[in-house]
Design a protein that fits this description.
Blueprint: H1 3-13, H2 20-23, H3 26-45, H4 49-62, E1 66-67, H5 68-74, E2 83-88, E3 92-97, H6 102-105, E4 107-113, E5 118-129, E6 132-140, E7 153-160, E8 166-171, E9 181-182, H7 191-195, H8 198-201, E10 209-212, H9 224-237, E11 247-253, E12 258-260, E13 266-269, H10 272-287, E14 294-300, H11 317-327, H12 334-342, E15 345-348, E16 352-353, E17 375-378, E18 382-383, H13 394-406, E19 411-413, E20 423-424, H14 428-432, E21 437-442, E22 444-445, E23 453-456, H15 457-472
Parallel strand pairs: 1-2, 4-14, 4-15, 15-21, 16-22, 17-19
Antiparallel strand pairs: 2-3, 3-14, 5-6, 5-11, 6-10, 7-8, 7-11, 9-10, 12-13, 13-23, 17-21, 18-20
């Protein structure tokens, strides 16, 4: 077989991963960089779930979306093309563009999660020791605890005061504001610490945030440093210690998302798992052409801790939203909802692990996603023998693949790593349990769950293009 025939046969039969930067022209490269500038601005604003929902709702309203309560009041006869949204407890956002006959056609749904690993504060968190004030934390989601000491931290969240007033807290992001930090041992006294396994070198109870060092001017006070912190909080926000029990307050990495590398092709930022998919799916539904199917973008909470609770994807918020839509046309029941689910398609848009050349031993090199090679299609996640996985059918996998091919989306297949090295899960199984066709599709990251995660601008833009094509299908 001569070289020419061999090349033709390889082109016909083999699947080849494509490196976006080599396949794209200068115009698409420029668009991807411009898209990612807006994405970085979004990341900087939305370090908590509440902040993400507030910003997402703002963007939705600017693009013509109306709350479902308002659409009911208008009593519009032909709702096709209507843009509606619904918020759940300031931690879920769901948008829909109504298509033709929801009961007949179902919907195209993309679900991503907006919670990220962080440090929550314990109910009784503020204490004083050795003339220093600290806040005790409880880490949220899967983290490597040794990542968090010595990292500049900011405080984000809300506090409910005794008079039922909600106080928004955001301290540490501005240059003239203080930051906060967890201390660590100096190398000179770390002999025992350095001999421990990484998982034990820093204990959860040692993740205490340093927040104060000056005493209140009161000779009779017993805990002068703690009291000084409370005085600051009271003077600035009207908060007393009891109010901290009813707070939804997080310590998150301080600072802005930044470009990485001389060529600026990568992004470093906190919370890209999974706000990168939340942002790209939002932009996709805003820019997508109308489809016969209803188009839905859903931002879920609590994915990092199992998707439980009133704002997790196991809750009935999705069912309630679909019921609300049906009720715009007729009296409905849960039976109608599950009939619609059976006719619907979804993408669980979540990140996966990028093949890191410094840690080759944990990856299956033939089945791992590469940074810069486009959006990933992952048929199943889970661990071990596919435990806790949702596996997309061959038919649905083919359908998604063909949507991307027809729309010139650069995509790749991926798996999480070698089978016995560990694993992870996504929202996919909770969609599949509802009878909705679903598959995982997101982008690959380095440093997943670390204070600063790394993505490729090529993959971010590819995800946007993929989700847009899916909505329009």
């Amino acid at each position: 077989m001569d070289n020419k025939k061999q090349s033709e046969l390889e082109k016909k039969l083999l699947f080849e991963k494509n490196f976006c930067w080599e396949k794209w022209g200068s115009d698409i490269k420029k668009k991807s960089f411009e898209f990612c500038e807006d994405y970085k601005h979004f990341l900087n604003k939305v370090k908590t779930e509440r902040e993400a929902v507030a910003e997402g709702e703002k963007i939705a309203i600017q693009n013509g979306f109306i709350s479902i309560k308002e659409i009911k009041k208008k009593k519009i006869k032909d709702l096709t093309g209507s843009k509606i949204y619904m918020v759940n407890r300031e931690k879920n956002l769901i948008l829909a563009i109504l298509g033709d006959d929801l009961l007949k056609n179902g919907f195209n749904l993309i679900v991503s999660h907006i919670d990220s690993p962080h440090l929550d504060f314990k109910p009784r968190s503020l204490y004083e020791e050795e003339s220093l004030a600290f806040l005790k934390t409880h880490y949220y989601g899967g983290i490597k605890k040794y990542h968090w000491p010595t990292v500049p931290l900011a405080l984000h969240g809300i506090v409910m005061t005794k008079n039922n007033k909600k106080i928004n807290i955001n301290i540490g992001e501005k240059e003239d504001e203080p930051i906060f930090m967890i201390t660590d041992l100096l190398p000179h006294l770390s002999r025992k610490q350095l001999s421990k396994p990484l998982s034990q070198a820093i204990e959860g109870e040692e993740l205490n945030v340093l927040v104060g060092s000056l005493p209140v001017d009161d000779k009779n006070a017993k805990e002068k440093i703690k009291l000084m912190v409370l005085k600051y909080l009271n003077d600035k926000f009207g908060i007393i210690e009891e109010d901290l029990f009813s707070a939804d307050l997080q310590a998150v990495p301080q600072g802005k998302a930044r470009d990485i590398g001389f060529d600026r092709g990568l992004i470093a930022g906190y919370g890209q798992d999974d706000k990168v998919c939340a942002y790209t799916s939002l932009q996709a539904i805003l820019q997508a052409k109308k489809s016969k199917k209803t188009q839905i973008c859903f931002w879920a909470d609590k994915e990092e801790i199992g998707s439980d609770g009133v704002t997790g994807s196991k809750s009935l918020f999705l069912e309630n939203f679909v019921l609300e839509i049906i009720n715009l046309y007729k009296e409905s029941s849960v039976k109608d909802v599950y009939q619609i689910f059976a006719k619907s398609n979804s993408i669980s848009s979540d990140v996966t692990s990028g093949f890191d050349p410094d840690y080759k031993e944990v990856y299956d090199s033939k089945n791992s996603a590469r940074i810069g090679y486009g959006v990933t299609i992952e048929r199943y996640t889970g661990s071990g023998g596919k435990y806790s996985a949702s596996e997309a059918t061959a038919e649905y996998t083919y359908k998604i693949k063909e949507i991307f091919n027809k729309n010139n989306v650069i995509w790749q297949t991926s798996g999480f790593g070698k089978i016995d090295e560990g694993g992870g899960g996504t929202i996919a199984k909770y969609l599949a349990n509802r009878g909705i066709n679903t598959i995982d599709c997101g982008i690959a990251l380095f440093n997943m769950h670390a204070p600063m995660e790394i993505s490729s601008k090529a993959d971010v833009y590819s995800a946007y293009k993929a989700y847009k094509a899916f909505y329009e299908s």
